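Hey, does this match?
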Amino acid sequence: MTPDAQGALDAYGNSNEHTRDEVALVGIFVDRALERGRRSGWLAGTSITDAPGDHALVEAFRRIEQRLASCREASRMLPMDALRQRMALTLTEQRVLWTLIGFEIDPQLRRLLRQIASEQVSGVSVGTLLSIVYEDAPGTGIVELGPKGKLAHRCLIELDPSDAGAPVSQRRVRIADRVLEIATGVVRLDPVVQEFAELEAPATPIESLAVAPAVVERFVRALSDADANWVVAYGRSGSGRRSLLAACAAAIDCPVLTIDARKLATAREELHRQLRLIARECRLLAVVPLFCHLDTLAPASDVPDRLDLVENTSEGLALGTCVRPIARRWKRPPVSLEIPILNGAQRAMLWGRVLPTASVGDAELLATMYPLAPALIRAVGAVAVRQCGDEEMRPEHVESGIRSVLDD
């Protein structure tokens, strides 16, 4: 970690190096808080004179920022650096996260934090964080550490629900498991979110979709609109709604997180948390949410409207698929675009693509005999190719694929 000729510091080699420095910086904040407490009399013990001063604090902070800048200059942004930027965190919010991370991974810091606690609670309390991070601005701390603060709302910290009736200073706070993973270099889609969502694989190139260029142009234009909020593709199941949205989003450098709305909770409180987790993951991974089967969240005879929660938690551009336009009172009506039914030539092209050994005549015949939606044609082709193996493709392979798909 030797400064070069220009005074810049070496880039961090990995996330663990960065985390060690940040936790050491938290240690300086804690030592200073302990000294203030002893000097003021609200902590037992004799005041010490060697608590780190302002210069040590500023120097430690400067070194961290320079090393992070060196990482960015090398086009290698570390996960926690990306988190603070994508979440637009204040300096105090960042320091809260690192204090809670330090409590989890550093035994010495955990012991010191328990010393500074004036409340008899397990874990880290709001009061302890106010003493360490918000010495000069406790009001800011109460807001930032509250249930409606950015840290809790975006699921970066967790407030113990059993403390809701306790004095603010005694309410316990812990780091979200997801953030603790990121601090130790583990970057992945939250396993909880994986239960109903997945990161879209590299999108199918637009030019390979069986969609008229005019339709593609309408979707790309809608997604590129700076004022775009919701863009919804509607059409019958299997018509390629998701594939078209993902391909058009990829064309404007917007990778997507695909959410199966059918797997989301029906209970509003649980759904609200799931949607906040989705919003967090989209920010952390710089992706756009794509809600498949969005219409399942619309009001039905036995289920109330849940789209209001989706509207309230979505940030920026969001995508959706449904069978037909959703009739409801939107805060900002979505741009709803229809996926046209394929014509014979487009179906023949798809059949020829999924069955590479089929002749042009065979593809045209299949398109006439089986006017299936794009997703079903692809599924039939996958089964037929698997059934065929190393043999020559025969009609019975295709028939097996058709039976398999249509029987499902």
